[in-house]
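R.M. (postdoc): so does anyone remember the format we settled on? I'll just put the structure tokens first.
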């Protein structure tokens, strides 16, 4: 008699012929998946409707949100860039086009650069550009040097009345420029700088806003680095040059752009200080163009485009550093 050994697996639960229960994905056991009831009483997480809810994904916009954002972007572009593009279009239109019609054309039918050449013949535009560049260069260099030193002194050096001086810088932001323009003119006149480009540039060589920007930029540098430099024997100028200055180059680019635009576009102060026609800046000199050719809007538009070109060039060269300065918030390792 041959003994046979049963090799079948033991049955759990005492029910022969039944397979072992398979665990559910949710951790339940049994022959089928356990249904989960939501708060609404449904069995599929949708309240019994059989439809799944659309889950919001972080960073992914719906089609409706995209449409709204692009519509708002187009409206903002139309408001900000529309007048500039219209001036550019007017400056390129020939004398045969009617710019006063009820339905003017945006694209010139007879494009020409003759209006720009006529501006150069009507006024010494290149001399005015040179004067404006001199004033802008003095203001840019002055703000970079003095605003950097003042911001470092307020943020990193310990001295008496430091908070008082910081409060005075904040208070000057409340006053409009026209409130102090008479005292500025008297000061410039007493210094013998009236009717000179240095007298035009002097009040703008350091701006309170630029000092506060540098103050905030220097505050982002960790104090531990300064303390370690002091322990190594570094003085204030060495800490400024080797530690703090490399960390705030983006903010310096922002100050350079703001200073250049402010000096280049300034009209009231050069009009008060300057009397000699050969020393006028571009913004003041263009007024002669408008007074002489008041009916020719093409030349006036060409003059405004000439005044815009240097600003566009400066921003194109420094825009990489400009956005770096806007986002600047700490020291990069």
């Amino acid at each position: 008699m041959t003994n046979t050994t049963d090799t079948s697996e033991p049955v759990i639960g005492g029910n022969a012929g039944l397979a072992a229960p398979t665990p559910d994905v949710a951790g339940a056991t049994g022959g089928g998946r356990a249904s989960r009831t939501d708060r609404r009483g449904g069995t599929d997480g949708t309240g019994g409707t059989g439809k799944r809810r659309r889950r919001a994904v972080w960073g992914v916009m719906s089609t409706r949100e995209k449409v709204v954002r692009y519509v708002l972007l187009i409206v903002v572009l139309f408001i900000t860039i529309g007048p500039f593009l219209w001036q550019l279009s007017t400056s390129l239109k020939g004398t045969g086009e009617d710019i006063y019609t009820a339905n003017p054309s945006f694209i010139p039918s007879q494009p020409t650069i003759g209006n720009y050449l006529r501006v150069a013949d009507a006024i010494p535009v290149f001399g005015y550009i040179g004067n404006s560049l001199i004033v802008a260069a003095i203001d840019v260099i002055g703000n970079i040097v003095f605003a950097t030193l003042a911001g470092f002194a307020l943020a990193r050096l310990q001295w008496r009345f430091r908070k008082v001086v910081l409060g005075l810088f904040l208070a000057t932001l409340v006053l409009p420029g026209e409130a102090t323009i008479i005292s500025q003119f008297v000061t410039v006149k007493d210094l013998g700088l009236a009717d000179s480009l240095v007298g035009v540039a002097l009040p703008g060589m350091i701006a309170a806003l630029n000092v506060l920007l540098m103050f905030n930029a220097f505050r982002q540098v960790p104090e531990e680095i300064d303390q370690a430099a002091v322990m190594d024997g570094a003085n204030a100028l060495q800490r400024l040059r080797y530690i703090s200055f490399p960390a705030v180059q983006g903010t310096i680019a922002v100050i350079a752009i703001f200073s250049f635009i402010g000096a280049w576009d300034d009209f009231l102060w050069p009009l008060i200080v300057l009397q000699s026609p050969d020393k006028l800046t571009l913004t003041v000199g263009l007024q002669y163009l408008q007074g002489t050719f008041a009916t020719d809007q093409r030349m006036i538009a060409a003059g405004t485009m000439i005044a815009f070109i240097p600003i566009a060039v400066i921003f194109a060269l420094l825009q990489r550093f400009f956005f770096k300065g806007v986002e600047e918030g700490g020291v990069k390792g």
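R.M.: ...and that's the designed sequence above, right after the tokens. Also worth knowing: The first helix runs from residue 63 to 91. The chain is about 60% helix and 0% strand.
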